[in-house]
## 1
Amino acid sequence: MRNGSTRRQRAVVYLGLGVGLALVAGPFLWTALSSVKPEQEIRRDPPTFWPQTWTLDNFAELFDRVDIGTAFANSTFIALVLVATNLLFCSMVGYAFAKLRFRGRNVAFALVLVQLAIPAIVLMMPQFVLIAKLGLVNTFIGIILPTVVTPLGVFMMRQFISDLPDELIDAARVDGAREFRIFFRIILPLCGPPLATLGLITFLGAWNNFLWPAVVAQSEDMYTLPVALNILNGHEATHYNLLVAGSVVVIAPILILFVFLQRFFIQGIATTGLK
Amino acid sequence: MAVRTKQAPAAPPPIRIRGALRQSGIGWLFITPFVVLFAVFYLGPLLVGIGMSFTDMRSTDVSDPLAVDPVGVENYLRLMNDAAMRRAAVNTVVFVLTTLPLAVGLGLAAAVLLNSGIARLPAAFFRLGYYLPNITSIIGIAVAWKFLLEPEAGLVNRLLELVGVQGPNWLQNESTALPSIIVMTAWRSFGFNMIVLLAALQSIPRELYEAAEVDGAGRWARFRSVTVPSLRPVLLFCTVYSSVGFMQFMEEPLVMTRGGPLNSTLSASLAIFGQFGVGNYGYAGAASTVLFTVIVALAVLQLRLGRRR
């Protein structure tokens, strides 16, 4: 009796989860499958779900219209540089907030939270004026500079390093090790898991970032993928064969990366949210 | 005192003071990258932006600051009489008030289902699937949904056709455009709340449920008297975090509707972006100062209300 009812309950749970997954995955699948159909088939009524004819024509046309290769390289380059700077700076700053005692530490840490709360749109204009004054409009440095160290990363690294035992550091201090040596030789090697999470979060954030690159990048050779896709969307608003292909080019690399590395990410999100 | 002796075991007083000074210097040295960036790219621009809002600055004045004149609160007065800005404010409030309960509610529902004792592997699979829309480019997603909602070739209307319903032109219709964007945003963002709430659910001690069961509490009673109170801080986090994000929505209407039809999907951020685009820096600065104030006030209010209960 009891066994029967739990089995039925489990079936209901799986049914609910399955329907939910179909609704979540549906738009992705439909977009991906549409991108490999010929343009006439995309518009055929009644619709085909599975492509009758497989073709890469949409991608060929897309690469012809827009310099996707350059945009892809720009997005990758910017994301990788930001990963490197964030790994180094966020862990340095996080270490200081976690383990070093210095005057003004609490005030400085409050600033990290303040920065987290300032909306992007509010900063966009004055940041752009500043970048213009520095002559950095339409440059990689202009796109990269404002996020070389991010408050979320500092926060994450501080949480993790706080939990490392003080004895480790005290022992090294007694041995006369300098602070930078302690940081690079003792702390950093222990930070593997949070650094992996931070690296992935930074990469995703940089890859997906739209607003700031859209403002700073002004010529096609500086566009990142989201910027290029938005421009395409403006020019070819009804050429859905091009738009779905563009959408796949922007989304697919991230999905693949994420599916392989997700365990680092989900743990990081869960703990940052809880603390 | 005990703590200080632990810090520097055998050092006499003068050296300890010098040591503390030295450590202060090293601490600041370590946080320099953050402090400099914060001052130059965040605090400075925030203050400059607020300052700009009291001037008639335009994009052409960037190279010639002397051409900028103070205009007092004129930009703010203009804001109040601007029909498009008022529409943007209303749209933003409607968007937050509808998307927030959807995104948090769906996230909670998914987390509860995943935590209801199903096997580990399928649970991990569903969790990954639900989270995917959250990590993908909003521009890519918005383009994909534009195609999904396309009146003739789009999947949604094709499916409706199968059951004999003629679907509307979702994104070109004043009454369906904003709701379409709301559903898409809830679809995209519930996975984040699910992850955070699931972690919180898993950390609720099993004994609490066992004690409630001994007291004769049913499934629903246990949910209300054990689960919900234990989740309160995390639900508060999800609410504050999501509403701060939703208050700034912009890319979705930018890609899908350009704010139309007839401003029915114009958001506060998109309106500011538009003013920035046409070079009205002072006016855009006033609008973003108001948006910033509202976002901060809302977050503080939510935290106050959430802590009191």
## 2
Amino acid sequence: MSNNNSQGSIRFTGANIVYPNGTVGMKDLNLEIKPGEFVVIVGSSGAGKSTLLRAVNGLNRLTSGQIEVDGVAVPQKDGRELRLLRKRVGMIFQDFRLVKRLTVMSNVLIGRLAHVPGWRAMFNLWPAHDKEVAMKALERVGITEKAWIKASQLSGGQQQRVGIARALAQEPAIILADEPVASLDPVTTHQIMQDLVRINRELGITTLVNLHFLDLARKYGQRIIGLRFGELVYDGSAATVTDDDFRNIYGRDFTEDDVLDEDVID
Amino acid sequence: MAMVPPKPARNWPLWGGTIAFLVAMSWWSAHGIGFSLTELLCNSAGGTRLLQESWPPDFAFLPRLIDPFMETIYIAIVGTVVGGILSIPVAILAARNLTLGPIIWFADRNFMNILRTLPDLFWAMLFATAVGFGPVAGALALSVFTIAVISKLWSESLESIDMGMPEAVRACGGTWLQMVQFGAIPQGLQHYVSYALYAFELNVRASMVLGLVGAGGIGMILETQRANFEYERVTMIILAVLVAVLIIEQISESIRKRLA
């Protein structure tokens, strides 16, 4: 699972997204993310966290402006160029998005789709190398022994690990995690966050994580980006972020709904 | 406890109007086709005689039904398999959430509508003219019929799948075909099998009717025996068909229930 550390930079330049219903998802965003950074994006719901993440791999299209990944503009229409970009960008979802009736291995191999000739994937004739990559990805999240079990038989935390393994199987330069722990219990939440941090450290994959729990953002983030109505309102180190900063990001006092562990509010 | 609002009064003029409309429609239609109860009663003697001649069924004829009956089943199987395979792309392109573009979607929808609007008997006669009378024409007609049935039902069930998984495949850099294969079809597979079995049930029944217009199978025997006034044999055929259809439907239904 080699990963060139010089890869995985992202740059937003005057990027705007306005949805067809008029909602502003991203407003004049200028942002630079360096290779290997671990960035946590916070903001209340509807602040544009998902919009930002999904713009990086072209699931959301820009209304104006530009996003570059490693100096190459993210294509704004479907096609080969966009697929080539997505090949290098793994994504992890809140609802895991696994094929429940298939084995864990088959699910992780979906991460190899863009790496093998179409007919091989179609007839399930995966090259040994790709199976190896998938197995190593499972190893990295510690669920190798579940490889031949149906995804539906796993717990939520295990399913999210399969989700992470699928992203790792892409051998990506960037990982986008869209609320990866929002459907997990507190204990599993910390395990998954630790996994993401560890993978970021070990492989140097640029990682963008959307979180809505402030204490998680503070604990696991390296850099925190705050969004409000699609606008960048905070960008700084997780070590120095203050409660006032969070109040400003949310536009209100925060409550126990905004933290995972209620004790952190005094 | 909160007050329950009074039950609204029934809309009697609407009900009365609807019933009057239905009665008028029925009377007008019956008049149009010259339907008359008195005439029906006067002619009932002919019907009674036909029934008497049709009983008892000619069981000695049963062994001679096996071959044409198997032919009917073969026609139904070939029709279901060929139509079932062809219906896959037709259904996927007709599903709004999966199709390749508005023009293809529109063309495919209309293609499906045309297939469905024209009855299976029409297709049987068309193919009988094209490839000659016999089981091949029947199988072709049922293939078309199967495409019409499965693609309509399945495209609608595909439209209600969760698009999360297809999006995840796209996000990995997957192509449209991979999005369909890995993201959409696993969710729609159970429905597809269920609809294919349902189409097979319809096809067994339809292939008997198709025989009447010369598309082979047991329907063709039924037609020749009827033309020869061998009513006891006709009864035998109808009984055999009834039993066979019931058995096939039972099997198919129990499989479908297990899938659901």
## 3
Amino acid sequence: MDIDAQRLTRRYGALAALDGLSLEVERVKVLALIGPSGGGKSTLLRVLGGLEGADEGEVSINGTVLSADERQLLAWRRRNGFLFQQFNLFPHLTARRNITLPLEKVHGRTAAEAERVADESLERFGLTAHGHKLPAQLSGGQQQRVGLARAIASGPEILILDEPTSALDPEMTAEVLELIGELAAGGQDIILSTHEMGFARAVAGHVAFIAAGKVAEHGPSGELFAAPKEEMTRRFLSKVMRFA
Amino acid sequence: MARRSERAPLGLDLLLGLVLAAMVCALFWWVFSNLDTAWGWSRAWDFRQSLWRGWLVTLELSAGALAGSCVVAGLLVAGQRTRYRSLRWFSRAFVELVRGMPLLTLVLIGYYVVFAQSQVAGLLDRFGVGSKLWTGAALLSVFTGAYLSEILRGGLESIPQGQIDSARAVGFDRFQVFRWVVMPQALRRVLPALAGQFVSLVKDSSLLSVIGVQEFTAQARAFNSATYGGIEAFLPLAAGYLLLTLPLAGVAHAMERHFRYQM
């Protein structure tokens, strides 16, 4: 995928979550956003995913220019998949219904087709026994796997993951990361923000370090992790990797 | 969701139940043994037809106002959530005014100022809705609708932003977010409060006797003043209202169980 973001600004009241952020990458399969909390990773993902428009600046992905027009953003959201840190699933619907409902109402599949797709993806993620359960009856890792199954059920162009494992314990983190790794190996284009540096290094081809609403530096993950150019990146990496 | 606490010891539970039952019986026995009137159930029996008619009127009023109040509440909620500030303020003011007035006041003003005006009454008659029953149902709808709208608004606003984000992320448009994600969860949360409001509506319909609607309470009063029937008029009245309100509460509880899920 190609991303071309120019001078993106997004303000919440007095706070500029994105402060003139620019990022240009071409032919990247998996892009990881790393950096301190509150640096703007989530906001950038929300803009790239079409959940909200930027106040200033321009962004295009794979040649599609994202405007602030809600109808255009809706069409863009429908082409992609999105997974949040938590509060993903609809608590009043079973795991299976969580997957089939958008397929039917958004993507126009028949009920039978939607169920076939849901059962396939549940099986692929080892959740066949849990399809009939409500989210509250599932562990955090299972919930996040269902969320992942829902996000990819429609065959998204790009899968966007906002700290998909931050709310999970280490064991559940491992099972979710493994699935994401499988999806990446299968050729799925992915943009994710993460605090799992080992995972970013292993799976992402390209890494961007984001702080204070800007991209401090970005590059192929091997280079960035081995020899960060910016002092800020070095300090961040030495802190978070101390016990790795 | 309230978790049922652990079971109390059975023996103690039974004993407590017996004590409570005995206390209720004693209270009733004391109250009724002190009534020095002789029971006169034959008079109540003679009045059964008008009581029955009154009960049916109350049933009609309640059913009509139940539907009407949902429409009013829907409009007021929509009005308070629209982009148009003027409409929001209007709806807000409407809710506050109606909720700030006793129902009796609203009914009297509504009837004497609005519906009893000859032009208005004539117009309503032309559409076949000129009767006091229609007027009463409309006033009750407005009153209950204002309360319902606040309950619904509270429920809608209690749904976390994360759910709305999640719904938009899977590609739902504004209406679909509301229809499939926000509304079902909000309704489940406010179901107990809605049920309480509907039960209140049934009971509030008794106030419409002041504008001459011949509903259940009005008939019981007429019976009382015609025969000095007293308690024989009011016990059937209590039973008649419970016959309407208890099933309503039962349906609400069944729905709560059916739509149960945990956040």
## 4
Amino acid sequence: MMAKWLEYARIAGRQALRKRARLLLTALGIAIGVAAVVGIVSLGEGIRCQSVAMIEEQSDLALIEVTAGLHGGTIVPITASKTASIASLPHVQASAPVVKAAFATRQQTYLGVVGGRWDEMVAVFDPVLHQGRGYRAGSADAVIGRDLADQLLRYEGIRPGDTFGVLVREYGESGLPEDREGDLAAVGILQERDDALDTAVLMDAATVTALAGERDTYDAVYVRVDSPENVFSVVEGIEGLGLNANGAFEEIESVNNLMDVVILVLSSFTGISLVVGALMIVNTMIISVFERMREIGITMAVGASQSDVVGLILLECLYIGIIGGLIGDLMGIGFAAIINTVGRSLILDRLGANFAGFAEADITLITPQILAAGMLIAVLLSLLAGIYPALKAARLNPVEAIRQM
Amino acid sequence: MTAIVATERLTKRYGTTVTALDDVSIEIRRGEFAAIVGRSGSGKSTLMNILGCLDAPTSGSVAIGGRQVDYTDRSALVHLRRTAIGFVFQQFNLIPNLTAEENVEYPLLFNYRERGERTERARALLERVGLPERASHYPAELSGGEQQRVAIARALVHDPLIVLADEPTGNLDSKTSTDILELLRELNRDRQTTFVVVTHDRECESLFDRTIGMVDGRVVA
């Protein structure tokens, strides 16, 4: 059976090669469409790739903040067993379960307090102390972020080493605020790190709950993933526990979603040229069937079935598709190169200095998948375009077909 | 001798006015070399097309090799054309972009024969029809007589029960015509293949075992 189709392929190849100029021009029709799609998609992929690289450069991708999840209207809290499950997920390098609270100084400076173990904080955030030391478990020690420390120094004169009073606002049974008081010791100041820790107060969890009230769940877990590539698998694991995962990876997700839509829309517009190419194939094959009517009749007279005839014609279309796909992929690579050289300066002008990252890199990206898709589109469209002419050929009445001059 | 092809009250009408075949009952025996003669329009070609399973009768029946032909069963018709019937046409009808040898082996392609066997059979037949040195020539490079010899080889390559030749000499000069008819006769004798040859020249009637005359769609004695 296989051998039979190889023989058919040989015969169909001979037929296709009869009118080489026609074969080439028809293939070119589909090739131009493929080239346009390949070029546009490569531009989309290039921009996607650059945007993701920029996000990776500017943010800490391997950090995930886990918060309580919502499942069917009920809150899924972060219990001790959940934190243990998170810590044991593959690719999790370190995790820090924390409680959160809002304190204020006597002069009403807001203090966002994060309570956890210092060693875990170190493992997840890798903080560098600008001054002083880390906090000790069970103490009233506080390590203050750089921006907040500057503010406290400037407006309240609190320096590292000082002890300062804080208020925890709570509401009594009457609904009136009842502030609880406590004292914190500023034992250390973090170096500036351009993230949320710059305005936070880090301290021991037990001290936080002693002031702000006991609780049996955590407010968040900070997770350090071993490398950015594994973030999505860890996120999947976390979501599998019914919890929420937030972080810079979400930006990548949204860039990916956006680019998917952009690429889809752009390639469907350029895909119109593919329709034109396919119609050219339909036209060419109808003419070809018409010209060879007598041969088709003879082929049937000597024993070809209708499906043999359909197969022979579709094989010819397959050749057009393969040639069109090859030429189209090559032209697409060239098209992408042109966008890269000519289009880059134009695009950079429009985007401005924020997108300077695009300047050194290629803005188009040809992947094997794009080229394979180009080839697949060309072949499928050619076969699709061949169906009508092939059926037309197979339905010829052999007696009338042979009578044709 | 047994009948290899038998028709029973075969009728073919086109529309309501034209009757191409009218109540034709004939028998062709195994190994016979039969001629059908008649003017153009007498229904010879229609009969050939029906015998060759290319066309269906309006009424009546045909048996090939002792079996009734079911003209509604398309795949059965294809099978008969593939295995039991060989055609020789007036116009030679070779495929122009295939060589003589490829043209001869073309029917075997649809019979799923191995390439080696196809080539062997095609070569042997080309030699038998006197064209061994023309195997790699294309039809356009051959004379009319040579093309018809290639076509005859093609009609025999799958060892059919019967070869139907529709005016095989109609496009040839009289010398070549005689040669072709004599070749057919020799092949009939050597291979015991049954031949039905449509002709309108009565000069070579002596070559045939039997002559079936047709007038206005009817068989006349």
